[in-house]
Target: Diphosphomevalonate decarboxylase
Amino acid sequence: MSVYQATASAPVNIACIKYWGKRDTKLILPTNSSLSVTLDQDHLRSTTTSRADASFKKDRLWLNDTEEEIKEGGRLATCISEMKRLRREVEEKDASQPKLSSYYVHICSRNNFPTAAGLASSASGFAALVASLAALYKLPASPSELSLIARQGSGSACRSLFGGFVAWQMGSLPDGSDSLAVEVAPQSHWPDIHALICVVSDDKKGTSSTSGMQRTVETSTLLQHRIAHVVPARMEAISAAIQARDFDAFARITMQDSNQFHAVALDTDPPIFYMNDVSRAIIALIVEYNRVSVANGGKLKAAYTYDAGPNAVIYAPKENIKEIVELIVKYFPQPEAFKDPFGLFGAAGVGEGKLVDGFNPAVAKPFGVGAVKNLIHTRVGDGPRVLRAEEALLGTDGLPKAA
Ligand SMILES: Nc1ncnc2c1ncn2[C@@H]1O[C@H](COP(=O)(O)OP(=O)(O)OP(=O)(O)O)[C@@H](O)[C@H]1O
Ligand SMILES: C[C@@](O)(CCOP(=O)(O)OP(=O)(O)O)CC(=O)O
Model:
């Protein structure tokens, strides 16, 4: 008997131009275009195995070993049924294809980082779901076509169907068929872009992105200004900066857009605060680090950005990461020396940290151990990967294997 099963992994992406607001909440159509950097799956990823079998009694999904309910009409159900629809098209064109679209699926997924903690698990999670079903169903669909479906799981997920630098074009059609992700530049165009994630909190967050952005759409006048007058020009400018590998322009726009996203959150009624004192201290450190560089005739060396939570993501060319880690560790001591996967610091790692010459230490007060709980050093990465059969998360019985 044939086994119909496929496993895929997908990356996290962190936006430089933020998606915040929907014009259609069911189809997940945004009020503005957005642009992100895909992070390396070698460090942060969702891995998903999908299997279709005539003996299965219903569609089931396990996330990190716990079964999730697939609510009728919900986001998971929509993605699964849309993927079955694409499979049906394949079967209608070629009668020799097994009728997998009529079978129920079992799906097992794991994230190798905290779920629902503002580390974009919904993005990698829905991208991995769509990528694994596309492999199971042997769909001829392009990443942009698959992004149309991932988008209906979680908007930001559509951007995780590509590696490198990715735009989500908002589109204008009411059915959403032109609201999709496109590659701005592949990972290989600018592999030198690294990211340092400062995990300020890995708790579940207070106001979810989904509910927060709707409140912003309903109450913020600043959002209307952003949509009409700010984002279109920024999309153009940051795409040009990426094409030219102009980090100074990339960093300036990224920080401006993070600031404006948090400004529209604050302009929401009642106001939404995602950053905390630790987040703001990290901003002050990056601003001062850049000031010293510019004062010495240089350019911006790092860019911060924050999603719907207090964690900082710092983008920088690889050559600056050592200084940045030393700076962060100086103000946010770590329980153990920080060792990074790129071996920038040798076997001993970074212990006490230090400041670059000319840095004004008074821009922030030092915090205690635990204020930044964890540092994750990663870089721009590739798009979803189809994995070997041995990496499957479902056992021969179609149920999750023990972790
Ligand atoms: N691997 C996965 N497979 C399927 N769904 C997932 C997966 N990982 C996360 N999700 C879905 O995404 C939800 C978490 O999304 P949520 O937006 O709350 O957090 P986040 O993505 O970590 O944060 P943010 O999107 O604001 O950065 C989970 O509750 C689950 O429904
Ligand atoms: C701040 C953001 O991370 C918001 C992400 O929102 P989601 O994609 O999580 O929202 P839903 O579409 O409702 O699932 C900015 C971004 O990723 O562009």
